[in-house]
Amino acid sequence: MQINKLEIKRYKNLRSFSGDFKQGINFISGPNEAGKSTIVEAITDLFFTDPASTKKAVKEKIGWDCEQSFELCLEFSDDDSAYLLRKDFESGEAFLIKQSSGEEITDKHKILNVIESMTGMGNPDIFLATTTIRQGEIERVSHSSDAIKDKLEGLITGGQEEILASEALNKIEDEIRNIKKEGTRHLGVLQKLHKNKAELIYELDKAKREIEQTASNRVKLRETQELLNGIYAEYEAKKAHMEKASQAFQIEEQLKKLEDSFQDLNNRVKSIKDSEEIVAELREEISDLPKIDSADLSLAEEQSVHSRFLGGKKESLQEKVEELAERVALAKPNILCRLIPGLPAEKRSL
């Protein structure tokens, strides 16, 4: 794997750093506290540290005068692919972009798997021991190649000097034999895997059948959905037709009401015309009658009042005549009296 470019923001004493790397050995030099070891630590954190970690050791790496946590970005490649790795320790997010295809990986375990496959290691200590030589180790390496051997033995043995690397290798060989061994009661790892192979194949076949059944069900579901869509479309069409029919029926009723109203108005108009003709005829008849002036009308009113007065007086006189006739009849029962009604009392004859 080849590291091509590194960007650092707010990491320890490096507020902002950007540097390119070439193939082969890259030599970083500078005075004390310039940030040489800091660059190595930043690369290690980029590869192996979870950006969402809340460990004190991670928080202590935040820039001395910064309120936000640090952000690291690295471009690296191998013979086949080039990648861009970015980790934001403020938001806790990480993503790896395969630059040739644009594929983006955000799952942290998958990112670590890609790094392990490209570096050949998943341990930060082994990475530091095999890829970098720090300032204090340069002198040791110059005097003896055993320095690297001691460091590797310390990583393998957990720092216990009394355990030799050969013993560690023996343990590894024992583990390999345990993996390869075959038995009847205590099975080796490979033997167990072979034994479980049939079950795995069965489960795989079962999963395939279930997948095929699921695919078949999906086809049926699509057909049912299409049928349902057709029924729904037909329902909508019939619903629209029914609404139009209802509107037509309402319009027809309104038209009938309008026709009845029109007929009624027509009859009224005809009646008005007939009335106008009668009025015209009456006006013609009235025009032929003699006209009465206001003086004649006043005289007629006076005569009418006088006639009503005389009528009332006549009734009063008749009552008196009847009363006198009764008196006469009582006084002279044998005398026939004939009264002429309507004459005054002084002119009547016995």
Summarize it.
By secondary structure, this protein is of the alpha+beta class. Helices cover 61% and strands 11% of the residues.
For this entry, give a set of tags:
9 helices, 350 residues, elongated, alpha+beta, Rossmann fold, six-stranded antiparallel sheet
Notes on the structure:
The protein is α+β, with helices and mostly antiparallel strands. Among the domains are: 2-132, Rossmann fold, CATH 3.40.50.300; 316-350, no CATH class. The chain is built from nine helices and six strands, in the order ββααββββααααααα. A hairpin with a 4-residue loop joins strand 4 and strand 5. The radius of gyration is 64 Å and the shape is elongated.
Based on secondary structure, the structural category is: alpha+beta
Please give the order of strands in the largest beta sheet.
Answer: 2-1-3-4-5-6
Taken from the alpha-carbon principal axes, the silhouette is: elongated
- Note poorly predicted spans: none
CATH class placement of the domain at 2-132: Alpha Beta
The total beta strand count reads: 6
Mean pLDDT: 79
* CA-based gyration radius: 64 Å
* Strand percent estimate: 5-15%
CATH fold call of the domain at 2-132: Rossmann fold
- The CATH architecture of the domain at 2-132 can be named as 3-Layer(aba) Sandwich
* Tally of separate helices: 9
Reported for the largest beta sheet, the result is: 6 strands, antiparallel
Output the helix-strand order: EEHHEEEEHHHHHHH
Any idea what the CATH superfamily of the domain at 2-132 is called? P-loop containing nucleotide triphosphate hydrolases
* N-C termini distance: 172 Å
Q: Estimate the helix proportion, in percent.
A: 55-70%
